[in-house]
Amino acid sequence: MADTASALFPPLVPGLSVFADDYDLILCDVWGVVHNGITAFPAAADALTRAREGGRTVLLVSNAPRPNPFIVKMLDRLGVPRSAYDDVVTSGDVTRALIAARPGVKVFHLGPERDIGTFDGLDMVKASMEDADITVCTGLLDDEVETPDDYRDLLGRMKARALPFICANPDLVVERGEKLVYCAGAIAQAYEEIGGAAVYCGKPHRPIYEAALARATELRGAPVAKERVLGIGDALRTDIAGANDAGFDSLFIASGIHAGELNAVDGAVPDEASLSALFDGHAHPRGVMPRLAW
């Protein structure tokens, strides 16, 4: 019976140290693993620092719509030590590369003013939706109160123009303190539901993993074999599915966006029945932890 049950859900592991020696590269999610948008998790930073001290390269891979420097500053502000990572790769970085490939492109920015730095230094023209060549969505204008339903009319007008839609953050929701807020991925999903075409720049899609592997090769001086890569994250749809599709092992952190479903709020150990239900029909990670620790 124990063997049958264990096949229904991934095993709980006490710490990253259990299988850290099996990997040369760790691709670790940020929101929900290293911090929750308000508070950093010291045990997670300690685990990643120890991994690096053991010779592994640690890249923080985030669906943040803003490029690397903005995220590094946020991590500094939250007190995440730089010893915990070698570099940061974001969906904002991938977004910038797509825009840079089209010099002079007219861009309608759908998102909050705080994300405007995503476009710094690019050869592009900011335009209205009616005049734009593409839409770049970095999020909701006010994610504290809005939902994707607030954008139905705008999306309908975009669809009428067959306007290409670049999603700079494929997350549907993200943890902010003790609440979940909608992200650009939820708007992109709504656009696709009415027949619009969306391009996703972050996890679980390949471009961000290709960018991360390229950066790891630069840092290590040689490519890393896929079987020596571990993805860590708290989102089944993006982190675990993305790592699996890319050919990597993964470690699932239960206290992030799925905490309510798993009865794992505030780092509680998830129960077996909830784990089995969550992973039914989905790729399994190598292990599960309530919160990342060594």
Automatic annotation (TrEMBL):
GO terms for cellular component: cytoplasm. It holds the Pfam family Hydrolase_like. One of its GO terms (molecular function) is phosphatase activity. Keywords: Hydrolase. InterPro entries: HAD-like_sf (IPR036412), HAD-SF_hydro_IIA (IPR006357), HAD-SF_hydro_IIA_hyp3 (IPR006356), HAD_sf (IPR023214). This is TIGR01459 family HAD-type hydrolase. It comes from Xanthobacter tagetidis.
